[in-house]
Amino acid sequence: MTARRSESGGEQLAQAKRTIGGHETMVLKQQDAEAIYDAQPPRINPRLAAALKEHGRRVSLE
């Protein structure tokens, strides 16, 4: 029997959550965090504005 098979379902689930969490979490250095915080969002060009307007017309949140 392998070590993997001898683990309980709860232990396997906990390990899976740790593994997924490690892939979903990004750790930034102070300099990186400041660069993201200070970044300016891109300007909305006419094509994007038209697409947003069309999306609003087609998609309802209600």
Query: How many structural domains can be distinguished in the coordinates?
Result: 1
Largest sheet: none
**What is the H/E order?**
HHHH
Average per-residue pLDDT, rounded, comes to 86
The fraction of residues assigned to DSSP E strands is under 5%
Task: Return residue spans where pLDDT drops below 50 for at least 5 consecutive residues.
Answer: none
- Distance from N terminus to C terminus (CA atoms, Å) equals 54 Å
Radius of gyration: 22 Å
Structural class: mainly alpha
What fraction, in percent, of the residue positions are helical? 55-70%
What is the count of DSSP helices, taking H or I runs of 4+ residues? 4
Shape: flat
Total DSSP E strands: 0
Describe the overall structure.
This protein has 62 residues and is mainly α. The chain has one domain. Helices cover 68% and strands 0% of the residues. It contains four helices and no strands. The protein has helices at residues 3-6, 9-24, 30-38, 46-58. It is flat. The model has no long low-confidence stretch (mean pLDDT 86).
